[in-house]
Amino acid sequence: MLERRLPRYRPAAPAIPADQAAAERIGRLALRSLYREVALAPKPGLVTPASQGSHGDMDFTTFQRSLHSLRPYFPEITVCGLRGPDFATLQSLGIAAEAEMLAATGGINTHRGAIFNLGLLCAAAGWLIAAGETPEAARVCQVVADSWGDDIRAGLASVPATAPLSHGLAVARRYGSGGARAEAAAGFPAAREVGLPAYRAALAATGDEELAEVQALFALIAEVDDTNLLWRGGPAGLAHGRHAAAQFLAAGGVLSDDWRAHAAAIDRDFVARRLSPGGSADLLGVTLFLAGLGG
Ligand SMILES: CC(C)(COP(=O)(O)OP(=O)(O)OC[C@H]1O[C@@H](n2cnc3c(N)ncnc32)[C@H](O)[C@@H]1O)[C@@H](O)C(=O)NCCC(=O)NCCS
Ligand SMILES: Nc1ncnc2c1ncn2[C@@H]1O[C@H](COP(=O)(O)OP(=O)(O)OP(=O)(O)O)[C@@H](O)[C@H]1O
């Protein structure tokens, strides 16, 4: 079991300087992955440097402000991971980062999913570093599932029927979709089994990181139970979004000569329907982080 492979929680132990430096590098990788996600274009219905996508209340500047506010968070939660923290400890860091983000954006949710997903992965990477293991992609995902999966799932089940619901919880209740929590608790299967292989195959075929990012994003949209698509468009909107992305891939994806025109048409269609695959965008950030870790 995991307890035997990883050290126990050490609340006050000072970090070894080399571990601290390695953890901070991983925190910077998480932030860089999110910059790459928002800088990417085209992305259907999502915010890019040139477009607000399907969003009236945020643009590229909002995302830049949000990312600036998160600069200390990712190194901090990775360093916290060195001590083998419990879920409640991580949750308090995540909630504080959410508050910083909302203060920086004037109350707009730009990175709630990313704070959660990448925060957990960073903490897992820290834990592995302290155990003397290389924080490879598959291992960090496994540590998230094994160490905190039960607590993450318990959080979804324990919300009182009368509690005010976030959009994610509202669609979880209405449609039984687990969203960001289910994905994290299971060790990020969509990022590992869909995003990462699509990214690596397209990178090998084209040698172009941006093309590989576009391909990974469409692969994720085609497969993920994206609670942002569900919230905006209901089950029909989610099915429509997934089908459009699957058609893009079936036509050859970024290897097709006219992929840009095809992606632009899907973007126009998503914007006309107010659809935004924000969960898939967050999982593209996770995919780029895992690709950066390697393994
Ligand atoms: C768990 C969180 C993200 C819950 O989100 P919630 O269900 O309330 O939904 P909400 O609509 O507010 O946000 C969901 C976020 O997940 C992303 N998302 C949507 N679908 C998916 C999916 N299938 N997979 C991954 N991410 C997704 C969205 O882009 C969005 O940003 C969060 O609000 C929370 O509990 N924050 C506290 C911080 C915390 O627990 N941190 C733990 C350690 S870092
Ligand atoms: N590049 C991006 N563009 C837009 N959304 C993104 C992008 N990257 C990630 N997201 C995610 O999408 C979510 C925003 O979607 P949305 O605006 O639908 O959420 P909401 O605020 O819950 O709902 P609504 O705006 O419909 O009231 C953010 O939580 C963010 O994590």
UniProtKB/TrEMBL annotation:
Transmembrane segments: none annotated. The keyword Nucleotide-binding applies. The keyword Glycosyltransferase applies. One of its GO terms (molecular function) is glycosyltransferase activity. It comes from the Bacteria. Keywords: ATP-binding, Glycosyltransferase, Nucleotide-binding, Transferase. It holds the Pfam family CitG. Its EC number is 2.4.2.52. It catalyses: 3'-dephospho-CoA + ATP = 2'-(5''-triphospho-alpha-D-ribosyl)-3'-dephospho-CoA + adenine. Involved in the formation of 2-(5''-phosphoribosyl)-3'-dephosphocoenzyme-A, the prosthetic group of the acyl-carrier protein of the malonate decarboxylase. Belongs to the CitG/MdcB family. This is Probable 2-(5''-triphosphoribosyl)-3'-dephosphocoenzyme-A synthase. The gene is mdcB.
